[in-house]
Amino acid sequence: MTSPDREDIHIISRNSNWSAPGVHKALKENIYNNQSAWQQFLKLLFISLGIGFTTAGIVFFFAYNWDNLHKFVKIGLIEGLVIVSTLLIVFSRLSTLVKNILLTGSAVLAGVLMAVFGQVYQTGANAYDLFLSWTLAITIWVVIANFPPLWLVYALLINTTLSLYAKQVANHWPDEQVYFLQFLVNTALLLGALYMVKKNTAASPSWFRIILALATATTATIGIIAGIYGHKSVIFLVMLPIVAILYTVGYLYGLRQKSLFYLSVIAFSCIVIIAAWFIDLSHDAGMYLFTSLFIIASITFLIKKLIDLQKQWAYEKGA
């Protein structure tokens, strides 16, 4: 039997003669964090902040002292840090979580090493080459560690690589094509995260899925708006039905999982897209007024429906 969550306890207390001390005890035992939980949280927080600030300090150290450092020192220092952190991960008896945090820092340092190498030897590479090499270099680490923050760094690198490649090499690509590719990448990562939930693994926490869902909806929304204001390219015509199908699947998934987040994100994205389409039809003052009224009315209706759904799900859960 699973432990009750906060909503379960509140529903039972409202529909029974459960005393206030009993409710407080249930919340303390099942919901509130105890001293050991806070100590564990603070320990991981300070470890993460320490590694993050150390990595940032290394970057700023090179930026400030670049002209005064020998090229051997520039490259050797970063390589040494990567090697030391990797050896700690492999041979130390630290917990798996601490090792994964160290590995995330090493993944960032790998990008710094490539940037320093390019500056020292003036390779003449485009910025997308750096991010592409960075992405490929840490792929094995990401797959083996299966650590959500590291996956988040990986997703950011892929999206950045696509964006820079479109600007520096494939500058003939329409904007909607770039956003469409990013949408496909983020969708694939989101589906993978949802699959991990189905397998009941700890590698896909809710915050990780929320960030991926927001990235997916954002790239889809911007891509369709770019297509509306653009030249209605073939990519735009391909993107429309794919986004519509995936939005429908996401909407049904949100209903099945009783998740207001997915429903609200998809609905808000659709509202923004429809508003952009209205403005594209006409640029006179009347259309701007109509679009403003449409946004206000649709968001008000959306909030009301979400509140009604939340009440309905809470009633069904308590029944």
Explained architecture:
The structure is a single chain. By secondary structure, the chain is mostly helical. The protein has a domain at 70-172. Helix content is 83%, strand content 0%. It contains 13 helices and no strands. It has helices at residues 6-14, 20-30, 35-64, 71-91, 96-121, 127-137, 139-145, 148-168, 175-198, 206-229, 234-257, 260-281, 285-318. The radius of gyration is 25 Å and the shape is flat. The model has no long low-confidence stretch (mean pLDDT 82).
Short description, anyone?
Helix content is 83%, strand content 0%. It is an all-alpha fold and 319 residues long.
Largest sheet properties = none
* Whole-number mean pLDDT: 82
The low-pLDDT segments are none
Count of beta strands: 0
Helix-strand string: HHHHHHHHHHHHH
Q: Rg, please?
A: 25 Å
Distance between the termini: 18 Å
Q: How much helicity do the residues have?
A: over 70%
Residues in β-strands, percent: under 5%
Which structural class best describes the helix and strand composition?
mainly alpha
Number of helices: 13
Q: What is the chains' assembly state?
A: single chain
Overall morphology: flat
